[in-house]
Amino acid sequence: MGRVFQERLTRFSELPKVPAFILVLLLLVGSWTASYYTGGTKHAYPHLFYVPILLGAYFFRVPGAWLTAAAAGILAGPLMPLDVDAGIAQPLGLWLFRMGFFLLIGLLTAVLFSQLDRRLAEVNELMEALAQHHVRTLMVLAQLHELRDTSTQGHSQRVAINALRIGQRLGLKGEDLHNLYWAGLLHDLGKILVPDGILLKEGPLTESEFLEIQKHPAFGAETLEGISDGFQAVAEGIRSHHERWDGHGYPKGVKGKDIPLAGRIIAVADVFEALTNDRAYRVALPVELALAYIQREVGLQFDPEVVQAFLELHRAGQISISLHPGDIFQSLGEIGRHFPGRR
Q: What is the CATH number of domain 149-338?
């Protein structure tokens, strides 16, 4: 809520200066009109002048506060009778006091808004520093698994890049796209807790070994959640990337659109990448066979909408099969464009 309020406040404060000036001017005229035609300063309507004074301070800080307060003081002073019907003018001391009070309120408001500007700038700097720290943390975690299992080197980067492009194709933007990328990059993080004898085994896994492997999505998600609550959305993508559209996946056995979209996207990107690259227990499949497998699994293992987006991207040549250094930089650039607050 605090961040949303801050963004709305910033957008309002960035109203172009000419429209802001016109708004303040109209409010001054409106306040004078309401006060004059309701009988003068003997009634409470002159309090309406506080509105343009506060907005003048907000949009233009101290200079705006002084000018708006002075204008309000003149309009509500020598240009405003005490009683319009009786033709009684205000005493000099009364309207000078009111002008002084208007100037005081305007100045205090402008100073408070200036202080708020400085505080918000400090908060933004802290948020940027925290975001940079989180990025470094995630990059270190992304490297841990591949340092342990060199046979899958580049796998996570390719999954992240292809998931990012699928997400873009499906219309994801901003923070959703950012979280999808990191979930793709860290989807196998939990494998660092799987014993070497199982993770690096060249032959088929036994039933108990496969059950151990099936724990890695939950391991990875729980690891991230233990670092920061801010990683919750990324953790959900990691936890759900082995769920199946038909409900026969793991770790929770959820199905259809109950599976988080990030998990459904990563599932397709992960399987395609795994099939088209060598593993210790088999050689890579031809791309055509990998595509045929994914199409056969539509509505069973995979979300039909995600597969459709994936196939369109593949036909357009936008799915990475072998990792090139430029792919990483391009993907990070895309993240920066779609989520500039977190680079």
A: 1.10.3210.10
